[in-house]
């Protein structure tokens, strides 16, 4: 039974509950505060996605988790429960698989990428290897358009990596390859695209860190040639990628367990620092009523569409034993399909009501806590609220807090 919501006796009275998930995962529940914050995070992901859908009506995200996949054969939407994780999800809905545009798919994709990279790092460490995190940035200001800034970044990276000195240095350092992530934030100096890169070295050269550090001036040269400006002390940063503590120290996040793999795969869930905003922070501000943030998000969405977030150098995936899986497959949860059971199907009309009330996150939360009975309960409240002045959530609020 839910530990966060209303008093148990009262809830039981209305739901007659034993939600499937609630019963099975009770022992493993985290603290109430954690549970509540997870619920809120999940609900807000769907609200945030709705904001992106309004801003990007022509993009795939506009259909994500709204449209049926097989409308002719099954016009309803299934509510699924993962027996292993205890998490609920929708079945028979379209997923957009867009890391950049969609907070819902983006979260699944980045978590999948993090897990595979983390696994690769374990394999690498077991072979005696080390990992370094290299961060490359460059000066920019408010007048730079994002499209120009991204084009310059691509040119500088290409030229930097094509130099003989870069290749020789990486070879001497024992590099087995690298994986680079693309990321962008927005702050008082405008758009700030940058890259984080994990460099995998074999551990044979004890001076590998110093060698990689020696490339600073060469990155500086590439930047100066392209932009006519000098990098500052943060323009080239390299540090051990083996210690999570260093990341927290560097990025100042109160995120225990934050690792190198998180740093480069989770750009979409990171919070901006020192007044800078991540794209989904910008979307959140749009949702709160800032039209200018809406325009910024559209600019970002246009420029990042189709871009790859992670670039593995040739052969590194094989070396790390990482299998190929597409963003779409991760967003669809292909790997978890066998662990899922169906709780029930929301019919077409009720699904339209769920959409109209922007309540997809709430439906999943209640499915997770109270099973199918819970879903039926709030659907009934939504039906009853049609044509009434009383919004559906007001009548369920005393039972469910999120
Ligand atoms: Zn999506």
From TrEMBL:
Name the family: Belongs to the Gram-positive plasmids replication protein type 1 family.
This protein is called Uncharacterized protein
The domain of life is Bacteria
The source organism is Sulfurimicrobium lacus
Protein keywords: DNA replication
Its Gene Ontology molecular function terms?
DNA binding
What Pfam families does the database record attribute to this sequence? Rep_1
Q: Which InterPro entries match?
A: Rep
Which GO BP terms sit in this record?
DNA replication
């Amino acid at each position: 039974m839910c530990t966060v919501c209303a008093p148990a006796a009262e809830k039981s009275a209305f739901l007659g509950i034993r939600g499937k998930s609630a019963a099975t995962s009770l022992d493993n529940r985290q603290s109430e505060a954690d549970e509540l914050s997870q619920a809120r995070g999940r609900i807000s992901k769907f609200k945030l996605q709705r904001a992106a859908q309004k801003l990007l009506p022509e993009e795939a995200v506009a259909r994500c988790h709204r449209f049926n996949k097989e409308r002719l054969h099954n016009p309803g939407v299934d509510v699924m429960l993962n027996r292993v994780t205890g998490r609920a999800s929708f079945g028979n809905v379209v997923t957009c698989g867009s890391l950049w545009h969609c907070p819902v798919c983006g979260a699944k994709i980045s978590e999948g990428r993090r897990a595979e990279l983390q696994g690769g790092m374990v394999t690498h460490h077991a072979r005696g290897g080390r990992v370094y995190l290299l961060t490359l940035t460059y000066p920019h200001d408010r007048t730079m358009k994002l499209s120009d800034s991204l084009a310059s970044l691509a040119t500088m990276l290409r030229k930097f990596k094509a130099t003989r000195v870069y290749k020789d240095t990486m070879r001497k350092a024992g590099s087995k390859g690298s994986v680079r992530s693309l990321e962008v934030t927005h702050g008082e100096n405008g758009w700030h695209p940058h890259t984080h890169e994990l460099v995998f070295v074999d551990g044979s050269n004890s001076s590998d860190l110093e060698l990689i550090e020696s490339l600073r001036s060469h990155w500086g040269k590439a930047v100066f040639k392209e932009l006519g400006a000098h990098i500052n002390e943060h323009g080239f940063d390299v540090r051990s990628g083996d210690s999570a503590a260093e990341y927290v120290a560097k990025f100042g996040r109160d995120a225990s367990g934050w690792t190198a793999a998180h740093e480069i795969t989770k750009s979409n869930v990171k919070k901006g620092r020192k007044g800078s905003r991540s794209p989904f922070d910008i979307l959140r501000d749009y949702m709160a009523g800032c039209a200018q943030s809406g325009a910024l998000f559209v600019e970002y969405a246009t420029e990042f569409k189709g871009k790859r977030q992670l670039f593995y150098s040739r052969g590194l995936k094989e070396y790390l034993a990482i299998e190929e899986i597409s963003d779409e497959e991760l967003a669809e949860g292909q790997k978890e399909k066998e662990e899922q059971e169906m709780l029930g199907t929301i019919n077409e009309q009720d699904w339209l009501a769920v959409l109209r009330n922007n309540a997809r996150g709430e439906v999943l939360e209640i499915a997770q806590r109270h099973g199918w009975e819970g879903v039926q309960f709030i659907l009934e409240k939504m039906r009853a609220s049609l044509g009434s002045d009383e919004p559906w959530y007001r009548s369920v609020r005393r039972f469910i807090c999120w």
